[in-house]
């Protein structure tokens, strides 16, 4: 039964960030690919931000970009939980 564990791994970062709604994230993401994708994107963005902060020399540009991405994904996850649908993400 490795599948449930693997499927929940991308959720851990979002669940740790949004402790008050962690159970809601877990339960909704089991059946919702879009929410699971948002959580995976969030996890990856957090990992990139952490890596950028550890780099020597530090890249202020990368840190700023990844911080903005993390903030945007946090907002999007919360909107999704409230509204039930993802916002369209357009990147330039």
Sequence-ordered SSE layout with sheet pairings:
Layout: H1 2-8, H2 11-17, H3 22-31, H4 33-54, H5 60-83
The biggest beta sheet is recorded as: none
The ordered H/E elements are HHHHH
Average pLDDT works out at 84
Helix content: over 70%
Oligomer: single chain
How far apart the termini lie comes to 40 Å
Shape: elongated
Uncertain regions: pLDDT < 50 for 5+ in a row? 1-8
Number of strands: 0
**Structural category:** mainly alpha
Strand percentage? under 5%
Question: Quick gist of this model?
Answer:
This protein has 92 residues and is mainly alpha-helical.
Give a structural overview.
This protein is mainly α and 92 residues long. The protein has five helices and no strands. 16% of the residues are buried.
């Amino acid at each position: 039964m490795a599948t449930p564990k693997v499927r929940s791994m991308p959720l851990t970062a979002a669940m740790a960030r949004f402790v008050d709604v962690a159970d809601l994230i877990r339960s909704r993401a089991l059946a919702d690919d879009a929410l699971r994708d948002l959580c995976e994107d969030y996890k990856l963005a957090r990992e990139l931000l952490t890596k950028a902060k550890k780099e020597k020399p530090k890249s202020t540009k990368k840190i700023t970009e990844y911080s903005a991405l993390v903030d945007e994904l946090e907002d999007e996850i919360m909107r999704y939980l409230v509204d039930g649908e993802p916002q369209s993400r357009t990147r330039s």
